[in-house]
UniProtKB/TrEMBL annotation:
Entry-linked InterPro entries: Ankyrin_rpt (IPR002110), Ankyrin_rpt-contain_sf (IPR036770), Multifunctional_regulatory (IPR050745)
SMART domains reported in the protein's UniProt record: ANK
Pfam families according to UniProt: Ank, Ank_2
Coiled-coil region list: none
Protein origin, superkingdom: Eukaryota
Entry annotated with the keyword Hydrolase: no
Signal peptide: none
Keywords recorded for this protein, A-Z: ANK repeat, Repeat
Protein name: Ankyrin repeat domain-containing protein 29
Residue windows of the ANK repeats: 138-170, 176-208, 209-241, 242-274, 275-307, 308-340, 340-372
Amino acid sequence: MCRKQLGAPRACHLARDRVQHCSGWLLGTRMVLGLASEPADVFCQNSRSKSHAWKETPLANAVFWAARKGNLALLQLLLNSGRVDADCKDSVRLLHASTLHPHAFPINHLWLFCEPVISHRSAARSSTMELACITVTCGTTALMVASYSGHYDCSRELIMQGADINVQREVLLERTGSTALFFAAQQGHNDIVKLLLEFGASTDIQTKDGGTPLSAASQHGHAKVVETLLKNGANVHDQLSDGATPLFLAAQEGHVTIIRHLLTSGAKVNHPREDGTAPLWMAAQMGHSEVVKVLLLRGAERDADKKDGSTALFKAAYKGHNNVIEELLKFSPSLGLLKNGSTALHAAVMGGNVRSVVLLLGANADPNVTNKNNEQPGDLTQNDRILRLLRKQTANGSS
């Protein structure tokens, strides 16, 4: 640990050496990957050494830069030098400050600084602030960077140089659980996904939120990656911590091709999230009519409701997703009073979409049904067109 007045020329001799020798290199994969919004003071240390390899910091930073940019020649030169390890992990310097600094970010009782930024903003420094420099290993590897960035040759080189394929990322002593395969799947780099699987990457490792490569690829719409993962044993029933499955995530984002892959591989079409939200409900809310059609044809429960009692039709009606309403009406969903004490027609009237009201009335929704507050649909709007439609339907019903 080192202490130094922040008003001094440099925060400590370690920062001085780093800035002097590697100011031209890209500092750290937290900035490389764009996985954190705050700037970070990034160091590297050899993961096979128990001591801090500060003299290797410029070379280690260069490895991350080469992996990020896809510079295979530089990467090979660095790894073959024997002075930097393929499994080098990034680190951050935490500076404990007695006074809040304008460029600090609170992390429990510490403050995270980006020293390269501070070193060029001397006007913002306090001449009396004392700092305690603490280096914490973060755990992002060069293989993660290359996999995220889509550089196949660099990824292969790192693997052949002995990089640990299944190591999980950490940030500030907390394991996020992301692996190189997770990043490659998330970004849709199918060639790298195949490469990692060939060399033993696990499809089952989860992030702290329960995410897997399959859930990431499903959410981000990478159909080829999903197909590759399923062929290599990925669990179609994976769940996030909130119960969302790959099918749910694909339905939420409207990825029809992926949904077909998942259903063919045995995904449960009605499996809800912990709050009771089924894939059909989510697709209806988001307005994905093709997804709604596929899910219904594959046996989705048309009237499955959330814990609040709303159904897919109720939500689509409120949102004015008319194409979704049309698909749902083909399967004769409930038009009566729901568990939430309202009807789809009430929802359509509250949403104010005239076409939605027309569709529901055309399916014989009753404009005289009252909700839990003893209100008819017509009591919930001042829209003249909607009121005329409701009155006409009431008159036709009474005659």
